Amino acid sequence: MNTLVYLIPIALFLGGLGLFAFLWSLKSGQYDDLEGAGWRVLDDQDDRPKP
Amino acid sequence: MSCCAPGTEAAIELAGGPGDLPPSEELMLASRSLGDGCRQIDLSVPGVHCGACITTLEGALAGQPDIVRARVNLSTRRLSIVFREAGEGGPVDPRAMLAPLSGTGYAIHLFTPGEEEVDLELQGLIRAVAVSGFAAANIMLLSVSVWSGADHATRDLFHWISAMIAAPALVYAGRFFYLSAWNALKHGRTNMDVPIALAVTLSYGMSVYETIHHGAHAWFDASVTLLFFLLIGRTLDHLMRGRARSAISGLARLMPRGAMVELHDGQREYRPTGDLKPGDRILIAAGERIPVDGVVETGSSDLDCSLVNGESAPLAVAAGTAVQGGTLNLTGALTITAMASARESFLADVIALMEAAEGGRARYRRIADRAARYYSPAVHLLALLSFIGWMLVEGDIQHAMLIAVSVLIITCPCALGLAVPVVQVVAAGRLFEGGVMVKDGSAMERLAEIDTVLFDKTGTLTIGKPRLVNGGDVSPDLLSRAASLAAGSRHPLSIALHAAAGHPAGYSGTLREIPGGGMEAAIGSDLWRLGSRAFAGGAGGVDDRPGGQAFSEVVLSRNGTIEAIFLFEDQLRPGAAKTVEALSAEGFDLAIVSGDRAPVVEGLAQRLGIARWFAGLSPRGKTETIEDARGHGHRVLMVGDGINDAPALRAAHVSMAPATAADVGRQAADFVFMHADLGAVSHAIAVSRRAGRLIRQNFALAIGYNVIAVPVAILGHATPLVAAVAMSTSSIVVIVNALRLKGLGRRRVKGQEAGAQQGFAVGRERAA
């Protein structure tokens, strides 16, 4: 019972972190082009991110 | 289709002609202002496949000074370009700016997705899915430990924590259902959302009551999981819903803003199109659109009448010819006398036709809505009856309430809410792979129902580009001479001739283009002419060809003597013959509706083996043909591309347009196919029918599951554990069934794809 007192908040916090990360990635357009991103890794002309 | 040699891949896209950019005017209209002096334009590039394609396209535009950024999206096969409205040398010409793209060899089409605002509702839905997913996962884990036998104090603690997680999730993620249910109830109707909202709220209320009284069972997990699954369905459904499309406003933009009017005293005045009156003398320069219907008074020119009859071949006009509003004046200056005001002109007529046709589509009710009409009253009745039944048997209001709530939860249209959208999303993905874009999920439902297919001729069954047919009969010397003369002209036949001779350098001496006639050059002591028979052939210029009109011709003459005759015909779209054959074998009723002359349409109909054809139809005539078929109980698929087809595309039960179609045609159609091959039509029909079958299977599965689960719930055996397991498995079964479309669909349509490959091979030969 005592362990639950801190285990549950930790679990909820970690879950919340995941939720936050998902919402952030959604907002910053990480899912706009799932196929293209994979190919762009192989593009060795310009390493700087495009504006 | 293999990756990745950009040149050859794109050569396949014959329809657009590799690297054939849309005109500046359309490019500018399709772009939208970003506010800070920049405009964005989205182009559809169906040929991109891999990283090399991305580098080629983005690299081609990298050097352009007016382009702020260009980015390829490989998932959507789109290229979005942000450019400055005004460069150093005045306003930017988008076509010139994008010219390097034509060198890359990719077919490029304009892409105007209705009103491309950021879809706020979709973003809200995705966020709600994330929040409810988070809540569902946490509550489910707590529930698992309760089910596996936590002691009483721990159970109560877990229930309270669940209640605290569930409450905000229900309010935030459940608002879509509450609002929609409230709206329905306010208007005295019920929809699928009413039982959902009831089940979610009641199960939460019952659970809180149980928790306060230290009960063993709480339904928090059920109510949040329910919400999570339903929101997934709702999000997918939203993706498949057709956006409000601006087909009509696009058409209105083709109307010129104003025109130069010559007053009686010889003075000139620029007037808005709306103020033009019958009797006005209007001056029209080459390259301008004719604002209103009228008659040519002086001057001669070629008119691009694609708006009126869908034909790409220009029409020569001279004094006395009637012209229609919206047509484009190509070569020479004209003075016309207005015969009608803008409101009574041709273009306004087409707009009115489209507005009228717009209403017909709205009568269609989506399968899911039809199901909801019977489903939700049945569910309410069932819950109510079990409540009354248990009251009569036991008289315990709390227990009866619990049973009624569990019936509501078990019958909740979870699988039902997923059944349609999942299938449609998978089918749309399948079609996209085959180069067909779906603009509206319900269009697939409608496509599965059709029994009649009407084709437009030019631009649909044919590519709409003339091709030299007798190149072998003409001596190479004369061909290259003609081609060098043709190099200077923008007339479609000249362009075709120039291309047939392998793009030789243009003639460098003095060259004159006579509007409505052709090209003229003095080489040495000889006068060479290239153009119509009447112009080039001089006195002998009588058209005595047998059955003549099926071909267009260009004549090359020296000093009035005909040296060579070049014959052109519109080339058939790759896969057209095969598709027509396949469709009629499947029992569809086929017909051609064209604005072209009867002999040409008849010739094509015979070649393709289509028995019914209509020639010389106006946009109104096409629409009436469709209304007529509808009156006889047929459901019509219209395949067309021109502005003159737009009202018909709207009026038909469902419609398709090639990506090379006019902007308005693309907007008006439900499906757009990207590749040149007409096989896309039968492919789309096959996938839609398969999707329709899967949707019905899914309904059967969802209802079958209810038939088993409802008696369990009514008898009072549905504990939270049973509900959670039953709900999840039924949803998973429905999704897995929908995914079968990916694998099975591929095998089913393989035959057609082989056909498409063959079409591509033909295209490649021609391009080579």
Description:
The complex is a heterodimer of chains A (51) and B (768). With 51 residues, chain A is mainly alpha-helical. Chain A has a domain of 28 residues. Chain A is built from 2 helices and no strands. The longest helix of chain A is centred in the N-terminal third of the chain and has 26 residues. Chain A is elongated, with a radius of gyration of 18 Å. The model of chain A has no long low-confidence stretch (mean pLDDT 81). With 768 residues, chain B is an alpha+beta fold. Chain B folds into 5 domains: 105 residues, Alpha-Beta Plaits, CATH 3.30.70; 242 residues, no CATH class; 97 residues, Calcium-transporting ATPase, cytoplasmic transduction domain A (Distorted Sandwich), CATH 2.70.150; 148 residues, Rossmann fold, CATH 3.40.50; 106 residues, Calcium-transporting ATPase, cytoplasmic domain N. Chain B has 28 helices and 29 strands. In chain B, helix 6 packs antiparallel against helix 9 and helix 7 packs parallel to helix 9. Chain B is elongated and about 110 Å long. Chains A and B meet through helix 1 and helix 2 of A and helix 3, strand 3, helix 6 and helix 7 of B.
